[in-house]
Structure formats: structure tokens, C-alpha cells
Amino acid sequence: MTRILTASILALVLGTGAALASGNLSTQQQEQIRAKLTAQGYDVRKIESEDGMIEVYALKDGARLELYLDADFNIIKTKIDD
User: Does the keyword section mention Signal (predicted)?
Assistant: First the structure.
């Protein structure tokens, strides 16, 4: 019984952590972002939603970039991540 409870709590905590890491973005939205940016030549590493902004960490042409997207997943700002 203790093992089942511990496993359930662990699954809940890990699931919550994953949800917080991606902010309010659904898995489907993250897949759409990844597909759109991959088609544009980006290697997407991480997607986050923070303070109403979508932040994407990606590589392109050897450069590490932070991309900021609008609600339609269009790039509105690009920052070189040193």
C-alpha cells in the first residue's frame, strides 16, 4: 500500500513539473511550434511559456538562439544566447 501511494505521489509530482516547465502550452501546441520552426531550419531544444510569451530555445547555423513567439507562433524577437 505504501509503495502504491509513493508511486502515485511521485507520478503526480513529475507530471506537475512537466506541466510547469511548458507553462500553459499543450502538447499539441508544442508539437505545432516544433514542426513550424523545424521547417524553417531551427533545431528546437526547449519550449516554455512565461509571462504570456512563448520562449523557444533553438539552434540554427551553429548559433544558440532564444526565440520569442506570438500567439500564432510567429517569431517576433530573436536573441543570440551566448
Answer: yes
CA distance 3 to 55: 38
Report H helices in the chain. 2-21, 27-39
The CA distances from residue 45 to 2, 5, 30, in Å, are 37, 34, 11
Which residue, among 21, 25, 24, 65, has the nearest Cα to 43 in the 3D structure? Answer: 65
Domains assigned to the chain = 2-80 (3.10.450)
Residues 3-54: tens digit of each pLDDT: 554 444 544 444 434 443 446 899 999 999 999 999 999 999 999 998 788 9
C-alpha cell at 80: 543570440
> Which three three-digit cell numbers place residue 10?
511521485
